[in-house]
Amino acid sequence: MNQEQTQNFPKIYKQQQPRAENKITHFLHHSEQNPKTFTSVLFNCSVNHNYFKLQINQTTIMSVSPRLKRVSSGKFAFSSDAVTRRDANYHPTVWGDYFLNHSSKFLETNENIREEHEKLGLEVRGLLVDEKMDHSNKIKLIDDLIRLGVDYHFESEIKGELKKLHDDQDHLALDLCSTSLLFRLLRAHGFHVSSDVFTKFKNTNGEFESDDARSWWCLYEATHLRTPEESILEEALKVSRKKLEALLPQLSFPLSDCVRHALHIPYYRNVPRLVARQYIPLYDAEAAKIESLARFAKIDFNMLQALHQSELKEVSRWWKDFDFATKLPYARDRISEGYYWIMGAHHEPKFSLSRKFLTKIIGITSLIDDTYDVYGNLEEVTKFTEAVERWDMEAVNDLPQYMQVIYTGLLGMYEEFKDDLINAGGRDFALYYAIEVMKEIVRSYQKEAEFFHTGYTPGFDEYMENSIISGGYKMFIILEVITRGEYSLKETLDWALTVPEMVKSSSLIARFVDDIQTYKAEEERGEDVSAVRCYMKEHGVSEEEACEKMREMIEVEWKKLNKETQETNEVTTPAVLPSLNFTRVLEVMYDEGDGYSNSQGVTKDRITALLRNPIDL
């Protein structure tokens, strides 16, 4: 802009100033569409040390000068050295120090509870292996164990009973409800079963028929394990959903709630721990419940909750010691939400190390993401990328002060993790893979920052190729494989690094679900690059059409993911549960908006149910 064009600009934009006036009342905006056109914008300004924040009251800024990047209605900071700082206005933590100070009293106030838990567990195990129980009751018992969240106590017994049911041809004579249950259980546990088993439930007109609401519910749940080109399950999905929606107002409790939950989020796509919290009171209300199992599930939930609370307390102490929330106020303070995210992927006691490390990872990664997306300028984030590539604590001296706390926390966390891997049986060779995936995600953040700061809008395929990495799911899947440590790792990790179809489908689902829910909020802070926007631009469609296409793609990728997780070998098996469970968590976290960034609503309620309130015995 020439001197004549800028003469009416406030002094702060023409010179570097250590401080600014408390109010800027008028600003001339240079239009992108017409270089000779200016738009009036009103601001309020408040001084904050060496930078000040501008609250836009009226018009959105489009472009003003090389120093002032695109922003939209919201806050941003403008430093004394002419560095533009945006602010996403993330709300503070809703938990404060609650989990840092909280200790469960459940085991202290129930002195004999462990003994009762053990006794009840033996009773349930006896029922599970009872050879006199008929197939339909055995199938329902297995399903109940899984839904109640206690199946981890009986993994080998469940696998053995399912193998018997799979090999026994008598299951072909089961009714629609039991057939649907068994179909879902077998596929979920790696047994091959053809969707042709449902053909016999069609009438002479080729239509599914049943007078039983429970059968429609079971069929609906089974259809979510369909793979590509299974037309009979596509048909069953449409019919069963329509039937359930029509029947729901007539159903009585607890079946009504089971159906309502399934229509909202199908069981196979839901987080196991949330399913357990929902299902325990529903099972307790069943007339045909097994008393010992109902009691066992309640006690087990509370015992496991006490463990989870102690882990979250430990991680919260680590977060507090670094004082991330105070030192990086522009970033999301979400360590409790991060633990909830990771706990949703694997809640069993034996994965305690995994939960604690991955919660720290999601906390640090969230800080890095917000730095690249919101606060850092291109020069600063490039320095951070270079420092991560070096992976050397000496590189901290090349970083701005606010970035040093992130870098120090990141490398220190990995050093602790190395010790944990050594203590866990000499698995420290896997540290290389853990570092590589962190470097990779930082590179992807760098590319997204370059998109923004240069004003470049990539094509849809280019955007998706990068977002498979930036979404973080490849990293989390690989890190969970490492921390679970149940199998020979190297071959699996080498395979996962190549972004095979299983990992790719999980990552694509995550990106589509995320972008559908977050693209508008991101645009409000000036970010125009998302799957939705790239697809709209490339295909010339509306927002609604682009979002609908994303939803169709989600269904396609779920079917691919089902196929990949049902056709496994020794190398791919360790990645099955990480791929499925992280995808499930994302589906739930974003089912009613961005439940991570905006955690004051349903996310808070779910954390309260899982990590704060025990179940009444």
Automatic annotation (TrEMBL):
Q: Which domain of life is it from?
A: Eukaryota
Gene3D superfamilies hit by this protein: Farnesyl Diphosphate Synthase (1.10.600.10), Terpene synthase, N-terminal domain (1.50.10.130)
Query: Which PANTHER family does the record associate with it?
Result: (-)-GERMACRENE D SYNTHASE-LIKE ISOFORM X2, OS04G0344100 PROTEIN-RELATED
Q: Which InterPro entries match?
A: Isoprenoid_synthase_dom_sf, Terpene_cyclase-like_1_C, Terpene_cyclase_plant_C1, Terpene_synth_N, Terpene_synth_N_sf, Terpene_synthase-like, Terpene_synthase_metal-bd, Terpenoid_cyclase/PrenylTrfase
Name under which the protein is recorded: Terpene synthase 3C
A Gene Ontology molecular function term for this protein is:
magnesium ion binding
Terpene synthase metal-binding domain mapped to chain residues: 320-560
GO biological process, any: response to jasmonic acid
**For the Terpene synthase N-terminal domain, which residue ranges apply?**
94-263
What are the entry keywords? Magnesium, Metal-binding
